[in-house]
Design a protein that fits this description.
By secondary structure, the protein is of the alpha+beta class. It contains five helices and four strands. The chain has two domains: about 40 residues, Orthogonal Bundle (Arc Repressor Mutant, subunit A); about 80 residues, Alpha-Beta Plaits (2-Layer Sandwich). The mean pLDDT is about 95.
Length: about 150
């Protein structure tokens, strides 16, 4: 599916997504036209889904991150759908994940400080529907944060 040239292009793109095409191609050892064609092919195949801006929310004054694990009361057949729809409406929720197993869902929530976190928790999180159990894990440090693949 991917050859060495494709992998070189992807590695360079992951390392510096803002590189101009000419620089990306040079770093990957191909011409700009070749790089463009290959990236277009990988985009068409769904390998590349686009480029995005990554905003450091910590630099915007959000100093608290909490990971919340939820077990839902699934006696209502709409429990998952209702919970997820409501969670999408909380602006401080960065990530929503669902699981198979004892934990049904996980939310990553940010807040400016502990007082703000307490307000979010009481007014927004505890009002989410169908919660049977919540387990909160406060982030202390991020030691590795990468979306790079071993390509």
């Amino acid at each position: 599916m991917l050859d060495d040239t494709d992998r070189r292009l992807l590695r360079q793109l992951l390392a510096d997504p803002g590189l101009p095409m000419a620089d990306l191609a040079e770093r990957a050892g191909v011409t700009a036209a070749t790089a463009w064609r290959r990236l277009e092919r990988m985009t068409g195949a769904g390998i590349l889904k686009g480029q995005q801006a990554i905003i450091d929310w910590r630099r915007l004054g959000y100093g608290v991150e909490v990971s919340l694990r939820f077990t839902l009361d699934k006696t209502d057949p709409r429990a998952f759908d209702d919970f997820l729809a409501a969670a999408h409406l909380v602006p401080e929720v960065l990530t929503i994940e669902t699981f198979l197993g004892r934990v049904d869902a996980r939310l990553s929530v940010i807040a400016r400080d502990m007082a703000h976190w307490q307000e979010i928790y009481r007014r927004k999180i505890l009002t989410l529907p169908h919660i049977a159990e919540i387990d909160a894990l406060m982030l202390v440090a991020t030691l590795q944060d990468t979306e790079a693949l071993p390509i």
